[in-house]
Specification:
About 55% of the residues lie in helices and about 15% in strands. It has about 300 residues and is α/β, with parallel strands linked by helices. The protein has helices spanning about 30-45, 65-75, 80-95, 100-105, 110-125, 145-150, 180-185, 190-195, 205-210, 220-230, 235-250, 255-270, 275-290, 295-305, and strands spanning about 5-10, 15-20, 50-55, 130-135, 140, 155, 160-165, 200, 215. The strands form two sheets. A six-stranded mixed sheet has the order 1-2-3-4-6-9, sandwiched between helices. A three-stranded mixed sheet has the order 5-7-8. A hairpin with a 2-residue loop joins β1 (about 5-10) and β2 (about 15-20).
Length: about 300
């Protein structure tokens, strides 16, 4: 049975429930559903945030479908890392040709195409002009952990469930961004430990390490994630996207390039309708108060809740 992504809108939040019975495996259909969700969240002015959770009673996403990885490994020739890098670029370019995707996925290059689509999906989440929170309702590993890492925040149920990057036990590294995002999030030492050890972390261990942002009672997990997503999603949409791109993209560049990217995002954002309205409101409120609103506790409290000066 193919996986699916069921989407429900709650105010300014899209709640996406990922299902693939019986084992809750990541597959191509889930990737396609999540990519469509990322496009909708990025483009819809009424969407400020996305919450991902799993339909399985004890799993978020177990991991990527190993049978699919095995089939692709057997169907394609052995490649050195250098050859694979070149091939990935070629397949990525080919996937941009209208109508080519079906033929590529039916060819020995299907494994390369799957990797490219995984890379594109996680980058789309990181650059999306909406806040993404992974509500980890159960065990997750491999591709499920990598999907959660692409989200802005991770909430995990306070239970006996775990999170891991166990690919090393099958003789390969994480392939959906795990090594890169773990290194950026936790540092080289912790990323090496997680990926070479491969063992699971409890919710509390993940929280202490900084892998997850909050541990919540299982019955409160989804509501807590939606509430935080709704709050952060009330910030101006173009501003959200600009912040995410400046940090997620610019933060991995040399400092000069990162600073220029930040400046470019700043210059683009300040001229948007939402930003101009907020700037005008701030200037007007300063005149009304005879004081900078940023220095008045009651004003700041209201702005934090509202998400903008208005």
């Amino acid at each position: 049975m193919a996986g699916s992504v069921q989407v429900e809108q709650r105010g300014n939040v899209l709640v996406a429930t990922i299902a693939n019975p019986p084992h809750a495996l990541m597959d191509r259909e889930i990737q396609m559903g999540l990519m469509a969700l990322a496009r909708r969240a990025d483009e819809d002015p009424d969407v400020g945030a996305v919450v991902l959770t799993g339909a399985h009673p004890s799993r978020f996403i177990a991991h990527f479908d190993v049978q699919l990885i095995l089939n692709n490994a057997k169907a394609s020739p052995a490649l050195s890392p250098k050859m694979a890098n070149t091939s990935l670029k070629a397949v990525g370019a080919a996937l941009k040709i209208p109508g080519a995707e079906k033929a590529i996925f039916a060819s020995p290059a299907a494994g390369l195409a799957l990797m490219e689509r995984s890379r594109e999906l996680n980058l789309a989440i990181e650059r999306c002009a909406a806040v993404w929170i992974a509500a980890l309702n159960g065990d997750t590993g491999g591709g499920g952990c990598e999907l959660a890492l692409a989200c802005d925040f991770r909430f995990m149920a306070d239970s006996d469930h775990s999170i891991a990057q166990p690919e090393i036990f099958l003789g390969f590294p994480p392939g959906g961004g795990g090594t890169q995002r773990l290194t950026r999030l936790l540092g080289r030492r912790a990323a090496l430990r997680l990926c070479l050890d491969g063992g699971p972390l409890t919710a509390q261990e993940a929280l202490e390490l900084g892998l997850v942002d909050r541990v919540v009672a299982p019955e409160q997990l989804l509501d807590a994630a939606v509430a935080e997503a709704a709050r952060l999603g009330r910030r101006p949409k173009q501003g959200i996207g600009a912040v995410k791109r400046a940090i997620n993209v610019g933060g991995s560049l040399p400092i000069d390039d990162g600073l220029r990217l930040e400046s470019a995002e700043f210059l683009s954002a300040i001229a948007t309708e939402e930003s101009i309205a907020a700037q005008e409101a701030y200037v007007r409120r300063t005149e009304e108060l005879g004081e900078l609103p940023i220095g008045v506790p009651a004003e700041i409290e209201a702005v934090l809740e509202r998400g903008r000066f208005a």
